[in-house]
Amino acid sequence: MPIIMPIYGTRPEAIKMAPIINSLNMSPDMDCFVTVTGQHRDMLDQVNVLFDIVPDADLDIIQQRQSLNSILTRTVDGLDQLFSRTRPDAVVVQGDTTTSTAGAISAFYHGIPVVHVEAGLRSGDLFSPFPEEANRKLTSQVASLHLAPTSVSKANLLRENIDHRDVVVTGNTVIDALFATAKKTIEFSDDRLESLSSSARRIVLVTTHRRENQGETMHGIGRALARIADAEPGVTIVLPVHKNPAVREAVLPYLSDRPNIIVTEPLAYGEFTRMLSLAHVVLTDSGGVQEEAPSFGKPVLVMRDNTERPEAVAAGTVRLIGTDESRIYKEVTDLLRNEESYLSMANAVNPYGDGRAAERSVAAIRALLGIGERMDEFLL
Ligand code: UD1
Ligand code: UDP
Question: Among 126, 168, 184, 329, which is 20 to 30 Å from 51 by CA?
Answer without folding.
Answer: 168
